[in-house]
Amino acid sequence: MGTPLESQTEQAAEVVDRLEEAYPDSTISLRYSNRLELLIAVILSAQCTDERVNKETKTLFEKYDGAEDYANAAQDELAEDLNSITYYNSKAEYIRTSCEIILEEHDGEVPDTMDELTELSGVGRKTANVVLQHGHDIVEGIVVDTHVQRLSRRLGLTEEQRPEAIEQELMELVPEGYWQQFTHLCIDHGRAICDARNPDCADCVLADICPSEKGDSEIDLASGEHW
């Protein structure tokens, strides 16, 4: 069992330092060329891998050019264009409705505030944070996806379960200059080492400070269950 540092603030800083050294090129993996494409890609990425989304959007972004194209698309046709994506019918409706709002209320431009973004169909705080950070260079919070949720609990940075509550705790612990990068570091480490079912603690750069480390710990703090 790893031994966390004395304070959660110290623990968070050490996690960032070590992961930054391990993943120096960590960044967003979704592919896009403008704000609308980013918004659509993030909507599609909910409960779906970025790899799958990138494969689908490669042709989607060639077919549809701008909010008007999506807003005027037939629901069945757009859904069929997304049929390899999880919940593609719902996501097609989210995209169409969001683009209608963007056209009617924002002059065809993706809005740049949390309140306006979360008024779009299918857009919660996580999606809005991604769009603000990578589309508008505005960092208001920390994107809490499944990797961030899992790692922050395993590493003893939070005991919260809801993403919104986790975000609030992390914003108090992680230096503000690393709010954006923290997510990408957690995603890379989650994919490479600290996966949900069988983390590779033997090769983990955080094992000695991780209270969930499988060597001695009996409990996965992410799930609260025995290893």
UniProtKB/TrEMBL annotation:
Reactions it catalyzes: 2'-deoxyribonucleotide-(2'-deoxyribose 5'-phosphate)-2'-deoxyribonucleotide-DNA = a 3'-end 2'-deoxyribonucleotide-(2,3-dehydro-2,3-deoxyribose 5'-phosphate)-DNA + a 5'-end 5'-phospho-2'-deoxyribonucleoside-DNA + H(+); Hydrolyzes mismatched double-stranded DNA and polynucleotides, releasing free thymine
Binding site for [4Fe-4S] cluster: C194, C201, C204, C210
GO molecular function: 4 iron, 4 sulfur cluster binding; class I DNA-(apurinic or apyrimidinic site) endonuclease activity; DNA binding; G/T mismatch-specific thymine-DNA glycosylase activity; metal ion binding
Domain HhH-GPD: 44-192
Cofactor binding note: Binds 1 [4Fe-4S] cluster.
InterPro entries: DNA_glycosylase, Endonuclease3_FeS-loop_motif, HhH-GPD_domain, HhH_base_excis_C, HhH_motif, Nth
Iron-sulfur listed as a keyword: yes
Keywords (A to Z) from UniProt: 4Fe-4S, DNA damage, DNA repair, DNA-binding, Endonuclease, Glycosidase, Hydrolase, Iron, Iron-sulfur, Lyase, Metal-binding, Nuclease
Function: DNA repair enzyme that has both DNA N-glycosylase activity and AP-lyase activity. The DNA N-glycosylase activity releases various damaged pyrimidines from DNA by cleaving the N-glycosidic bond, leaving an AP (apurinic/apyrimidinic) site. The AP-lyase activity cleaves the phosphodiester bond 3' to the AP site by a beta-elimination, leaving a 3'-terminal unsaturated sugar and a product with a terminal 5'-phosphate.
Protein name as it appears in the record: Endonuclease III
